[in-house]
Structures are given as C-alpha cells and as structure tokens.
Amino acid sequence: MGYMNHAEPYSDDYLKDILSSVKTIAMVGASPDKTKFSYGVLRVLHETGYDIIPINPRPGLAEIRGLKVYPSLADVDRPVDMVEVFRKPDDLPAIAQEAVAIGAKVLWGQIGVYNDEAARIAEDAGMKVVMNRCPKIELFRPFWKPKLHLEI
C-alpha cells in the first residue's frame, strides 16, 4: 500500500470528506485553559455540532465546557470517528496505536504535530491521516461554508 506524503498539501476533497463524515472527535491534549489554542478549537468544533470527547489524564479534571473528560482514548465508552492531537510530535506514534486500538477512522495532528511513523501506523490500519493542520481553520475555508450553511 502506498503512503500519503503528509508534507504535501491535502486536497480540498480529502479534507472535506473527513470533516463531513466524522461525528465524534476525541481531542487528545484538550485543555480547560481558555487561553490555550486547543480550548478555542474544542469550543468551535463543539459549537459546529461535533460530538467532542476531551482526553486529558490530569487528576481531578472532570469536564471542559461541560463535556466529560476521559483520561485516555482507551477509557472512552463510545465509538470515536476521529482522534485529534494537541501533543508533541514525539507523542504521536503511541497515540496513533491507541487510535487504531479503539477503531478510530481518522488521525488528525494539529498544526505543528507531524510524525511520519505515526502516519504509517494509522495508514497501515486503514485510517485516514491529516497532519500539521487545524480543523477549525479548515472548517472556515470558503469551500466549507455552503456545506455548513454559513455565510460566506
């Protein structure tokens, strides 16, 4: 099987297909800190209508924006379509293995999160992979707006 080159730009159709097909997104590295970029992305994706599952192992952190926080992907009690990662690139291969183990369909590395080994792990399992991109930014690119019935 050939691997995608994740250093190349993704096609609009590839991103659109992912963002229109996934419903449940587990966010690894979700933060309760409103000043963090991950919090803003979580807020926008949640408000857009995705079922967001924050993943953060911090003891005592029960919820973010009213959403129940799970300590790990393995602890999530329902199917996950996409795993979105706000962690160091070196953490990504292990997260990719966890994403495969729970049957996720997409591994998405946030801007700055890029790891070829993780991409191969996910792609070998039949997952789609996006790296070094922000779904919040992709959602509000012009080709999306009609799909989401938003004003252009």
Structure description:
The protein has 152 residues and is α/β, with parallel strands linked by helices. The chain has one domain: NAD(P)-binding Rossmann-like Domain (Rossmann fold, 3-Layer(aba) Sandwich). It has 5 helices and 7 strands; from the N terminus they run H-E-H-E-E-E-E-H-E-H-E-H. The longest helix has 12 residues. It starts with 11 loop residues before the first helix and ends in a 13-residue tail after the last helix. The model has no long low-confidence stretch (mean pLDDT 92).
Overall morphology: globular
CATH class: Alpha Beta
Number of helices: 5
Largest sheet: 5 strands, parallel
For this structure, what is the CATH homologous superfamily? Answer: NAD(P)-binding Rossmann-like Domain
N→C terminal distance: 39 Å
Based on DSSP secondary structure assignment, what is the total number of beta strands? 7
Numbering strands along the chain, what is their spatial order in the largest sheet?
A: 2-1-5-6-7
Radius of gyration: 15 Å
Task: Look up the CATH topology.
Answer: Rossmann fold
Short description:
The chain is of the alpha/beta class. The chain has five helices and seven strands; from the N terminus they run αβαββββαβαβα.
